[in-house]
Amino acid sequence: MPAVSIIVPNYNHARFLRQRIDTILAQTFQDFELILLDDCSTDGSQMILLEYASPRTRFEFNEVNSGSTFKQWNKGVRLAAGKYVWIAESDDYADERFLDTLVSRLNADSNAAFCYCRSWRISAVGSIEGFSDNYLPQLHPNKWTSDFEARGPEECRRYLLFRNTVPNASSVVFRREAYWSAGGADESLVLCGDWKVWAGMALAGRTIIYVGQPLGYHRFHNLSVRSQSQNGVSLIERITVIGWILGRIKLPKAERAVVLRKLAREWLPFVVDRRIPGRLRRAVLKYAMALDPCAWLKLIGFAPTTLRLALARRWRSLRGAAP
After folding, report:
1. Among 141, 180, 204, 221, who pairs with 124 as Cys (CB 3.0-4.6 Å)?
2. Are 96 and 28 in contact (CB under 8 A)?
3. CB of 134 within 8 A of CB of 121?
C-alpha cells in the first residue's frame, strides 16, 4: 500500500500537464501511487496523460463531463489506497521537496488532519507574481509567514470562519480518513468546496499544520474555474460556507454579530449595485436573509435614499404594518 495517493484531476489543462506530472515524479519522497483523472477534456489532454503509464499509475477518464471539480475530488479519494492524499491540481506544480516535507510533519503528529504550505502565485506562462496568500494579512499580519501548528476548532473560529485560509488546494496533504470523516467535498459547490472540507476537518478537533516555506506554485489564468465564475456565485457560496460553520460552533452573541457584520460588508454593495443583473442580486439577498435575521434592516440602512424609502415601505408591509 502506498503511503500517499496523488490525485491529478484534469479538465482542458493540456498545456500545463507535463510540468505538473514531471514535478510529481521528481519528488524526493517516492512512496506514492498516481491517479490521473480526466473530465472529458477536448484539448488532447488524455493523450498526454497516457504518456505517463507505469505500474503505479491509474487512469480514470470520464465519458461525460461531470461539471464539478469536487465530484472529481471525491472520485479520486474513493480510488485512493494511501494513508495520505495529495490532490495535485492539473495547472499547478510543486517543489521537489514538497511531499517529503509535508508527509514528515504529518507522520510526527498522528492527530493532524492535514498539513499545508505557502505557495507562490504564478501566471499562465509561469512567471512568479508574489504569494498566493496576499489576502491573509487582513486576518493576521504575519501568521502565514512561518511554521505553526494549531488546534482545528480554534483555527476555525478565529480564521476559517472568515476566509478560506488555504489559498491553494494543491498545497495540502491530508489524511484520507479525516477527509471522509468531514463528509468529503460538497459537490453542490463550485468554488468553495475546498474551504468547506478544510473547515470540516478542523472542526473535528484535529490539529492543522502549516509550513511557511513556499513549496507550491499556484497558477492563476483565464481558464481556471475561479476566473470564469460569476461574482454572485462566489458570494453565495461564501455566505453558504460561513453559515455552515456558524451552525457547528458555539459563538457568543456578540461574536456572531461581528461575523455577520463583516459578511454584510461584502453582500450589501453587491445587492444595491444596479449594474449587476437583478437575478444575481436577489439570489445573494435571499441567502443573506436566510443567515442573518437583521439582513433586511442592514440593507435599508445601507441603500441610497430613494431605494431606502422603498425598502422601508416593503419592510413595514412584510411586518403587516400600513405602507
Report:
1. 221
2. yes
3. yes
Phi and psi torsions of 183, nearest 5°: 95, 5
- The residues, any chain, with a CB within 8 Å of residue 179's CB and separated by 6 or more, are 77, 85, 197, 201
Given the candidates 3.90.1570.10, 3.90.550.10, 1.10.1240.10, 3.30.460.10, the CATH classification of the domain at 4-220 is 3.90.550.10
SS (H, E, C) 26-48: CCCCCCEEEEEEECCCCCCHHHH
Q: What is the pLDDT of residues 113-171, one digit of tens each?
A: 999 999 999 999 999 999 999 999 999 999 999 999 999 999 999 999 999 999 999 99
Please say whether the beta carbons of 159 and 251 come within 8 A.
Answer: no
For residue 126, which phi and psi values (nearest 5 degrees)? 95, 5
Model confidence, pTM: 0.91
CA-closest candidate to residue 148, choices 134, 136, 162, 163: 136
DSSP string across 77-130:
HHH--SSEEEE--TT-EE-TTHHHHHHHHHHT-TTEEEEEEEEEEE-TT--EEE
Q: Which tens digit of pLDDT belongs to each residue from 250-279? A: 999 999 999 999 999 999 999 989 899 999
Q: In the chain, what are the domain boundaries?
A: 4-220, 230-318
Cβ neighbours for 149, distance < 8 A, ≥ 6 positions apart: 109, 112, 207, 208, 209, 210
In this structure, are residues 176 and 5 in contact, taking their beta carbons and an 8 Å threshold? Answer: yes
